[in-house]
Design goal:
The chain is mainly α and 90 residues long. The protein has a domain of 59 residues. It is 60% helix and 0% strand. The protein is built from three helices and no strands. It is rod-shaped. This is DUF3811 domain-containing protein. Pfam families: DUF3811. It comes from Silvania hatchlandensis.
Length: 90
């Protein structure tokens, strides 16, 4: 199941600040303003990393939920002999 691509509006404040920091670092490393392609490349890499991280967290949550799911007690299952009268129906 493919999840839709994450947008900047859907990011938390901290994630948006991190993206801005990454863009600033790339701009400083190049020593000039970034082109649209370079900016989009940095954004795409960061969004891919965030989506992978969120998917991992979702997998862990699903695994935990499955582990904590109600388990049927094998010893307490329905027993015909315990629930029927030894004399049968009257």
């Amino acid at each position: 199941m493919a999840i839709p691509r994450l947008t900047q509006k859907e990011m938390t404040e901290a994630e948006q600040r991190e993206l801005k920091t990454l863009l600033d670092r790339a701009r400083i490393a190049h020593g000039r303003l970034l082109t649209n392609a370079e900016t989009n490349h940095v954004k795409k890499e960061y969004i891919d990393k965030l989506m992978a991280q969120r998917e991992d967290e979702a997998k862990k949550a699903r695994k935990l939920k499955k582990a904590q799911a109600y388990k049927v007690d094998k010893e307490a299952t329905f027993s015909w002999s315990a629930n029927t009268s030894p004399r049968g129906r009257r």
